[in-house]
Amino acid sequence: MTVTLQVDKSLCGGAGLCRAMYPDLFTLGADGLSEPLKTELTTAEEIEAAEDVVGCCPTEAIVVTGLDDA
Amino acid sequence: MTVPALPTGLFGPDYYQDPYPAFAWLRDNAPVHEFRFPVGDVRTWIVSRFEDVHALLGDSRFSNDAEAYASREFIDSGMVMGADTVVSRILTVLDPPDHTRVRKLAMGAFTPRRVAQWREPTERIVAASLDRLAESERPDIVDYASAIPAAVIGEILGIPFSRYNDMIHAIDRAFRPNDDKNVVTRAFEEIAEYGRDLIKEKRGMLGDDLMSVFIQARDGDDRLDEDELVAMLALMIMAGLDTTRNLIGSAVLALLDHPEQRKLLMGDPELVPGAVEEFLRYEGALTVGLFRFAKEDMEFAGTHLPAGAPVVAALQSANRDPRRFENPDVLDITRKGPRHVGFGHGLHNCLGAALARIEAGVAIPAVFERFPDIALAIPRDEVAYAENWLLRGLASLPVHLNTPGR
Lengths: 70, 406
What we know:
heterodimer; A: alpha+beta; Alpha-Beta Plaits; 3-stranded antiparallel sheet; 2 helices; globular; B: 5-stranded mixed sheet; two-stranded antiparallel sheet
């Protein structure tokens, strides 16, 4: 099953922690809010990285789906 | 052409009372400015424009970890935060992967969704603090503002913070300009020691509170070592008490200074969340961020920085940068628009932001609701900020709760 990475812009406050942690996976858009650079995660490293960000984001704005079903 | 000199020496007595003229000068004349940090007399750079502060705080070529990256001169000066104590391994200075592991443990308790449950307890605590203020012979908003975060964080952790006043004094000594390194080290050690006492007490009565989660992470599944556990408590004490106290105190002063803004706020409770953001921008709890250190030789915002360079992000300068905010020196609680850096940015952005927003949003309007005739009890020019290089907080704010003669 594909693991997908999304940012809920209604929750994001632009704290920039995601980009500071993993600049390969996240950037900040013109609105100052987070945007994923990849929406489909394929490697274990990427998935682990995204999960780290989920656990550290101050506003629970990072959404990773497709896990735990294996 | 000659450039006029800095209006006030950085981190000197005049600067502590009003840093904004110096910040305006820096933004215009030397946005990445090299100077000698007067505490410890260390070669330091200060970054003052919003864009550069934002970039600095999000730039992984910098670390907060002095022990790993700071210049020899900085380390020898005794400026390493909490040197020789567990505070030197506090979350605030960790890099990934340690940062990730420790932040994940605490973050879950402080997200907006999780802290929403603390609104009602905060309202109860604020009401009780207002009662105490009303009974006080010399009512002081800073006393009021000190008690609230201590009680709230105490309830979240599941242990009463009875010694919060000692801790506020210790934090003050830890970041006050002082050439005696021993005073600073003892202050950090006192905070760590209180953390150890609280852990010892709590180990015998674990519950479903946050402190039990931390202790479980140490004793249960070894996600924290003993020093990290103590450092976590020190973090809760240091970041949880003084910051929110400063924000509440400065915001009450701002509303006393701006009666029209106060009237606006009291007339429309829906303005509260935006007003809190404006208080964070206008007079946030930290004047500058903790030191960052260049991990390598580099160019930053057009300036060469050698590896180990200590760099200070002037948060309150960024928050008053006219390049970013229209009329930045005007308090406008209806301000819409760009986000401030009152909670920092990047890897070390404030963990407790959502809680601070609730505490401030309850505690600030409540003062004016309970005491509509509140007024300063001292002349305005005697209101003084504490001489603290990190934190921007009023030393005291004496008030008349019911203005005599009215």
